[in-house]
Amino acid sequence: MTYGIEDRPPIHLTFFLAFQHFLTMFGSTLAVPLVLFPAFCLERDLVAQSEIIGTTFFVSGLVTLIQTTIGIRLPIVQGCTFAFLTPTFAIMGLREDCQVIYDGYGNQSDEYIKEKSTEEWQSRITEIQGAIMVASVFQVLIGFSGIMGVILHFIGPLAIAPTIALIGLSLFGAAADKAGVHWGISFLTMALIILFSQYIYGIDVPCLSYSSSDKKCGVKKYPIFKLFPVILGISLAWLFSFILTATDVFPEGSGARTDARIEVVGQSAWFRFPYPGQWGTPSVTVAGVFGMLAGVIASMVESLGDYFACARLSGAPPPPSHAVNRGIGIEGIGCILAGAWGSGNGTTSYSENIGAIGITKVGSRFVVQIAACIMLFMGTFGKFGAIFVALPDPVVGGVFCIMFGMVTGVGLSNLQFVNLNSSRNIFIVGFAFLMGLAVPSWLESHPGAIDTGVLEIDQIITVLLKTSMFVGGFIGFLLDNTVPGTVEERGIKAWRKQSGSDADDEVTVDESNCYDIPLIMGFLEKHKVFSYMPFLPTFKGISRRSLKGSKSSNGDVEQDI
C-alpha cells in the first residue's frame, strides 16, 4: 500500500484523491434520484429535482463522515442504495397514477397547479421517508445487538443472488423509457462507458504531476479510464448532444436536446442548505414499512462483504465482530438520517469506491473523510444539482442501462459459490427468478386482486408481492433452507469464507487499534459494562470463547454474535 488506513497523504494529493472518490461514487448516487422522480410525480418541478439531488449528495457525505469516524472506521464511502428502489415503486403503486393526477388539474391557473403538484410530490416523498426511517430501526437493532452472525447462518448465495439481481431486472422499464427518447444518444452513452470500463481501462493517460520530494513538475500516468468511465461517458455524450442541439439536428421539444430543461440552472439557488423535514413531516404506513424491510435486509448482507473487501484492499486487518456490528448499526442510522433529510432513499456501502482503493493503493481513511466533505459542499451548492437535472433523457437512459445491468450482474455473481451442476440448485435459482418477475407482473396487471377485507392487510400483501426482490429472495431463502442439500452444494461455506463471515482469523480482535472509536477508548476501558456491548471495541463476551476454537455442530468455528 502507498498509504495505509491511518496514513495522511500530503494535502494537495489528499484533495486530488478525495475528489477522485467523489467522481467514483457520482454515477450511482446520481442515478437513484433520477429514476425516482417519475414515481414521486416530480417530473414537472425541476427546481425540486435539483434540491433533492443536492440533498442526496449532502446526506451521502454526512453518513460517510459518521461511518468512517465512529462506525466501521474503514475508508468506505456511503451513498444511495438500489435496494430501496423496488419497494419504493411498489409503495407508490398503491397511489393514483401521476398522469391521471395531472389530467385532473384541467384548466386551473398555474399557481393552483403548482401548489397541488407540490402537495402531491411532498406527500409521496414523506411517505417514503417514514417507511425508510421505521424500517431502518430494524437494521440498527440487528447491528447493535450483534445478531447479524445468527441471521447469516440461514442466508446463502441462493437467497442473495435473486434478491440483488431482481433489483436490476425490475428496473428495465425505467431504463427503456429514458433511453427510448433517442436510442442513438443512449447507445452512444452506453458505448462510451463500455469502451472506457471494459476495453481501454488498462491504458494510462499521461497527466501533469508535482513531486513534493523533488520539488518539481513532471508527467505521470494515471488510469483515467478505469477510474472515471461513467463521468467520461456522460460528459462526451452530453457534448455530442450539445453539438446536435446547437446545429438544430434535434427538433424543438425533443428530450435529447441539452436546452430542454436548461432553465432550471437559472431558477435554482446558488447555495441551499438541506435540513431535516424540509419536505414536511414524514408519514408512516404499515405497508410501506414492511415493503422497505426487504431492501434493508438486502442492503445489510451486501454491506457485510464490502467491509471485508475494503479491509483487505486498504491493508487493514479483517474487521472484528464489534466493528462489523457497529458498521451495520451506523448504516441503519444513516438510512434514518437520509429519511429525515428527505433524499427519498437510504444509504449503503459503495463497492465501486472499494475498487478505486485497489487501483490507487491508497487506503487512507482521511482521504475518504475529505471526500465526504466534498459531498457535503456539493450538496449545498444548488447549481450542482440543477446542472444534472438538465441532463438529456437519453444520456440518463444510457447510464441507467449500464447501472442496472451492473446491479443484476453483482447479484448473479453470488452463484459462483454454488454447485450449478446440482439439479436442486438449478431448480431453486430458476424458480426464484421466474416467480420474482411473474408475481409482481401479474399484480401490476390485476390491481385490487388482493382482497382480504382489511385494507391495511391488503396493502401490506400487495406491496410485498409487487416487490420482485422480496418475492424472489424469499422463495430462494425458503427453498434453500428446506430442500435437502449439503453446505458445500449450497455454496454456504465458500460464500461465508469469501465474505468474511466464516473467517478463522484468531488475531482480528486485538491485532490493530484501527477499529477503536477515537477519544473515548479510555472511558470505555474503565467501565466493565461496556465489555458486554457487542458493538464496542471493549466487547469481550462471546468473542473470547470463539478465540478458544470452540466448534459448532457442523464443525465450523463459532461466530461472534
Summarize the structure.
With 561 residues, the protein is mainly α. It is built from 25 helices and four strands. α13 crosses α14.
In whole angstroms, the N-to-C terminal distance is 32 Å
Task: Enumerate the strands of the largest sheet in spatial order, edge to edge or round the barrel.
Answer: 1-4
Cα Rg: 24 Å
Largest sheet descriptor: 2 strands, antiparallel
β-sheet strand percentage: under 5%
Structural class: mainly alpha
Which bin fits the share of residues in helices? 55-70%
Order of helices and strands: HHEHHHHHHHEEHHHHHEHHHHHHHHHHH
Number of contiguous helices:
25
Mean pLDDT: 84
**Number of strand segments:** 4
- What does the overall shape look like? globular
Which stretches are poorly predicted, pLDDT < 50 over at least 5 residues? Answer: 503-511, 543-561
What is the subunit arrangement here?
A: single chain
Provide a descriptive summary of the structure in words.
- Helix 7 (157-169) packs antiparallel against helix 18 (393-412).
- This protein has 25 helices and four strands.
- The chain has a two-stranded antiparallel sheet. A two-stranded antiparallel sheet has the order 2-3.
- The longest helix is centred in the N-terminal third of the chain and has 36 residues, at 110-145.
- With 561 residues, the protein is mainly α.
- Mean pLDDT is 84; it is low at 503-511 and 543-561.
